[in-house]
Design a protein that fits this description.
The chain has 593 residues and is α+β, with helices and mostly antiparallel strands. It has 17 helices and 13 strands. The two termini are 49 Å apart.
C-alpha cells in the first residue's frame, strides 16, 4: 500500500511548473489591469503627495444644538463618506468646539469631496405642484406636457416596484415636458397631508401659465408669499438656487431648483410625503438588462415603503405635473419622475444620466445618513508634501539598509539558496506594487508613511517564511536524506509553521485595523495585505522553485556553494547493513584455523 502512495506523491510533485505558470499568469493579469486602469503608480496619501485641507464651521440646525455628541456624529458620518473603507487616507477630525478639519490627499477630486463632507444629505420625497424652465431656459419653447413620457432628466428617476413593473415608467418625465402649472395652487388639503386633484384641464396639452393660479377663496397669506417666491425664483442664478428651499420645514410647501442637461428648472413642491431617513439602504448598480446605465437603488423601511406606496397611489390619480414627485436632496430636486399607480414593495430606483462616480456618491450619502448639523465652509487650503517627502526618503533609506542586511545574511548563511529567497522577495514586491496600484482607483487606497512602514516590516515576515523552509530541508539532509526527498519531506512541517506564523501576523493586523483610526489603519492594511501575499508566494513560487532546483546537479550533489552541502551541515552517514557470506561460517584465513 505504501508504494502506490509514494508514486502519487512523486507524480504530484513532478509538475511544479503549473504553480509557477499560475503565479506568472496572475502577475501578467494584474499588470494588464494596472495599465487598463490608467494608473501605473500607487495613489499617495496627503503626507506624501500633499492635498487639500478644508475647514468647516458648524451652525445649529432646526432642533439640533452644537455639542460634542453631534460633532462626533458628524465626524463619523463625514469620515465614512470620504473614507468608507478606511484606506483612502482622508482625515476628518474636530478642532475646538464647532470646527471640523478635513484633509483630502492629492488625486482625490477635492470638489466632490467637499460636497460629500459638507452636504447634510437631507432627502425628502415631495409632490410636485408646478414646474417650469427658469432663467435662460424659460425663453425657449417648451413641448406640451404629456403623461406618456418625455426626455430623460439629469439625473432622471424611475421608481420601480416589485409587484408590477408597469407601475413605473421606462423613462422619466422631463421638466421641459411639464412647463405648466395647470392652475395648481397650494391648497389647504395639501398642507393637511393629502394630495388634491388638479384644477386644470385633464388633457396633457393644457396651455402653460407662468405661475400657479390662486384658488377661488380662502387662500392663506402664506400661499401668496410662496407663489411670489416661485414667480420671482430664477434658478439660473446661484444665489437664488442656494436660497430656494432655505429653512423649509418638511411639513410645509416650498420651492426648489433642479437641473436637466445644463438647463435649470424651478419647482413648487408640497409637504414632504416620505423622509430620507426612511431609506433603509441605497446602492449604485449598473443596469445590464436595459439602457438605464448607472442607477441608485433604494430600499425603504417598512413604514417608509407604506408611505411611498400611499403617495404614489395618490399622485397617480392626477395629471402632469401633479402626478410627479420631486426627490429633493438638500433643497435641490435631483429628479421628478411621474407614476401611473401605487408603487409597492418598498423599493425604488433613481436612474438617468448618472456617471458611475455620481451614482456612488449619491448612494454613499444616502446610505450613511444625514448630518445632525449644517456646516459652513470657512477655508480651503493646499497642503504641500515637503515634510512627508523628507520622511519618505528617510524611511526608504532605512528600508533599503534593512533589505541589504537581509540579503547579506542570506548570501553568507544560505549561499545558493539565497537566490531562491531573493527571487521570492522580488515576486512578492511585484505583486504588492501591482495590487496597491490597482487598489487606488478601486477602493481609494492611498499609500502613506505608516503604510510604507508596514511594507518594510513585511520584508522580515516574508524572509522568515523562507528561512523556516530552508531549515526544515537542512534538517532532513542532516538526517542523511538526499535533496529531492528532503525537499518533499520538509515541506509539510514547514508549511504548518508558516501558516501559523502568518495567521498570527494577519490576525494582529486585522485587530489593529478594526480598533484604530486614521493613518494607523494604513499600516495595518498594508501589513495584512503583504502577509496574505507571503502565503501566496511561498506556496506558488518558493516551494515549486525549490522542487525544480532539487533536480539540478549543483544543488542535488550538495555543492559547497549550494548551501546544502551534507558535510558542511554535519549530515549523518546513511545507515547500511553489512552483507554476510552465503557459505558456511568459518575463519577467513586458513592460517587462523
Amino acid at each position: 500500500m505504501a508504494a502506490p502512495k509514494r508514486g502519487r506523491s512523486a507524480s504530484a510533485q513532478s509538475k511544479p511548473g503549473r504553480s509557477l505558470a499560475l503565479i506568472l499568469i496572475a502577475i501578467v493579469a494584474l499588470t494588464g489591469g494596472m495599465f487598463a486602469s490608467g494608473h501605473t503608480t500607487p495613489r499617495l496619501g496627503i503626507d506624501l503627495a500633499g492635498g487639500t485641507s478644508i475647514t468647516l464651521k458648524a451652525k445649529a440646525d432646526q432642533g439640533s444644538a452644537i455639542n460634542k455628541a453631534n460633532m462626533d456624529t458628524a465626524v463619523d458620518i463625514m469620515n465614512r463618506r470620504v473614507n468608507g473603507l478606511g484606506v483612502s487616507e482622508a482625515e476628518v477630525q474636530t478642532q475646538g468646539t464647532d470646527n471640523i478639519i478635513v484633509n483630502i490627499p492629492k488625486g482625490t477630486n477635492s470638489a466632490e469631496a467637499q460636497q460629500q463632507v459638507g452636504t447634510t444629505a437631507k432627502l425628502y420625497f415631495r409632490p410636485v405642484l408646478a414646474s417650469e424652465p427658469s432663467g435662460a431656459a424659460a425663453q425657449s419653447p417648451s413641448p406640451s406636457a404629456s403623461s406618456s413620457g418625455g426626455s430623460s432628466p439629469k439625473p432622471g428617476a424611475s421608481p420601480s416596484g416589485s409587484s408590477s413593473p408597469q407601475q413605473a415608467t421606462s423613462g422619466s418625465a422631463s421638466p421641459t415636458g411639464t412647463a405648466t402649472s395647470q392652475g395648481r395652487a397650494v391648497t389647504d388639503a395639501l398642507k393637511a397631508g393629502s394630495t388634491p386633484s388638479p384644477s386644470g384641464s385633464a388633457s396633457g396639452s393644457a396651455k402653460p401659465s407662468a405661475t400657479p393660479s390662486a384658488p377661488s377663496s380662502g387662500k392663506p397669506s402664506g400661499d401668496t408669499a410662496l407663489q411670489a417666491r416661485y414667480a420671482a425664483l430664477n434658478c439660473a442664478k446661484p444665489a437664488d438656487r442656494a436660497n430656494a428651499g432655505k429653512n423649509a420645514r418638511p411639513g410645509q410647501p416650498t420651492v426648489a431648483c433642479g437641473e436637466n442637461d445644463g438647463a435649470w428648472f424651478k419647482y413648487l413642491l408640497g409637504p414632504a410625503a416620505v423622509d430620507g431617513t426612511e431609506v433603509k439602504k441605497a446602492q449604485a448598480v449598473f443596469d445590464t438588462q436595459g439602457a438605464a446605465g448607472w442607477q441608485v437603488q433604494m430600499t425603504f423601511t417598512s413604514g417608509g415603503g407604506k408611505k411611498f406606496a400611499d403617495i404614489t397611489g395618490e399622485l397617480a390619480k392626477n395629471q402632469t405635473p401633479q402626478n410627479e414627485f420631486g426627490i429633493v436632496l438638500d433643497g435641490e430636486v435631483v429628479s421628478s419622475p411621474f407614476v401611473h399607480g401605487a408603487i409597492t414593495g418598498g423599493q425604488a430606483e433613481i436612474s438617468g444620466s448618472f456617471k458611475q462616480e455620481e451614482a456612488q456618491n449619491l448612494a454613499n450619502m444616502l446610505s450613511y445618513g444625514a448630518l445632525p448639523l449644517s456646516f459652513r465652509e470657512e477655508s480651503v487650503t493646499t497642503v504641500t508634501a515637503a515634510l512627508g517627502g523628507e520622511q519618505l526618503r528617510a524611511g526608504l533609506l532605512a528600508g533599503a539598509i534593512g533589505l541589504a542586511l537581509v540579503v547579506i545574511y542570506l548570501v553568507v548563511y544560505y549561499r545558493g539558496l539565497s537566490l531562491v529567497a531573493m527571487a521570492s522577495l522580488v515576486v512578492s514586491a511585484i505583486l504588492t506594487y501591482l495590487i496597491m496600484t490597482l487598489l487606488g482607483p478601486a477602493i481609494g487606497f492611498a499609500l502613506n508613511l505608516p503604510a510604507v512602514c508596514g511594507a518594510i516590516v513585511a520584508i522580515g515576515i516574508t524572509a522568515d517564511s523562507f528561512i523556516v523552509y530552508f531549515e526544515r530541508i537542512r534538517d532532513e539532509i542532516r538526517e542523511g536524506r538526499s535533496l529531492r526527498p528532503a525537499v518533499e519531506r520538509a515541506w509539510p512541517r514547514a508549511r504548518r509553521t508558516i501558516l501559523v506564523s502568518d495567521f498570527v501576523s494577519f490576525l494582529a493586523a486585522a485587530v489593529l485595523f478594526i480598533v484604530t483610526v486614521g493613518k494607523v489603519q494604513g499600516f495595518a492594511f498594508t501589513l495584512g495585505l503583504t502577509t496574505l501575499l507571503d502565503v501566496v508566494v511561498v506556496f506558488l513560487f518558493t516551494k515549486p522553485l525549490m522542487t525544480l532546483l532539487a533536480r539540478r546537479k549543483f544543488f542535488a550533489d550538495g555543492h559547497k556553494w549550494s548551501g546544502l552541502d551534507p558535510k558542511g551541515l554535519g549530515a549523518k552517514p546513511p545507515l547500511r547493513r553489512t552483507r554476510r557470506s552465503a557459505g558456511p561460517a568459518g575463519p577467513a584465513d586458513p592460517k587462523e584455523a
